Amino acid sequence: MWRSARPGETILAGVKILSIQSHVAYGHAGNSAAVFPLQRLGHEVYPVLTVTFSNHTGYGMARGPLIAPDDVREVINGVEERGAFARIDAVLSGYQGAETVGEVILDAVARVKAANPRAIYCCDPVMGDVGRGFFVREGIPEYMRDQVIPRADILTPNQFELEFLVGRHLATQGEVDTAAKELCARGPRVVVVTSVLTSDTPEGSIQMACYCDEGAWLVTTPRLDMDVKGGGDVAAAIFLAHYLTDGPRAALSRTAATMYAVLEKTHLAGSEEMLLVREQDEIAHPKEVFEIATIS
Q1: What are the pLDDT digits (tens) for 91-102?
Q2: pTM for the full model?
Q3: C-alpha span between 267 and 199 (Å, rounded)
Q4: CATH class of 16-195+232-247
Q5: Which of 78, 94, 194, 232 lies 20 to 30 Å from 125, alpha-carbon distance?
Q6: At what angle do helices 31-40 and 231-246 cross, to 10 degrees?
Q7: Considering only CA atoms, which of 115, 107, 178 is closest in space to residue 148?
Q8: Domain coordinates of the chain in residue numbers?
């Protein structure tokens, strides 16, 4: 499988990813968060937009239109007509504003996989977060749980979303482990849980864990006192990119390293948006300084 370039090394072609997500003009969310990191890692991205907003809805107000599901489908049809589906290695999705958009995404996944049986589907099940609760329309969480999750190959919920998907509160790391493995049994071959905070998490830290047939691992990084908009979108994209080239353990290590480095620099700068462009070297060549612990 294609691998990422090391310092001083040039590799001409990367993997190809169809990314079906929202778009914002100001800041980083959805494809506005995912596309640049994927490109900086050397991959070809076909971005398809489901909304085009002025900014992330976390600001309390956003301007711009939702894109009709039929229009989203038409863009995907056009990509297919270029003969791209047989060359696409992965489909990536994030925020789904309505069930009808989810149906378009699942249809695209099925068509890509028919053209390239080795292609995979990475779903970031964006539904809500601790403190904010659910921020999607009624019915979306159930649709994600019942229709989308079984069709995903890689799933990247935060702990709040994982709790909804398994229907219970998760207080300990062992309970998170059990819940993630339950999701793996429903279809996904890989589950990555972000923003893990349990009674076992060291004080002043936050964790990320990965579960798959190859093993299960946990990484702990310092917790930064900041509200991150679009962080999950970036993490899902970076994990997918490294998973495709180097497998799950390396993907977890590099995702944690990149996210902490970018967020630390963002926090120190007092920026309201992630400094993805300024700190792009942390994306291309992350310093893997955090220990990856094996979960038994």
Answers
A1: 999 988 789 999
A2: 0.93
A3: 25
A4: alpha beta
A5: 78
A6: 30
A7: 107
A8: 16-195+232-247
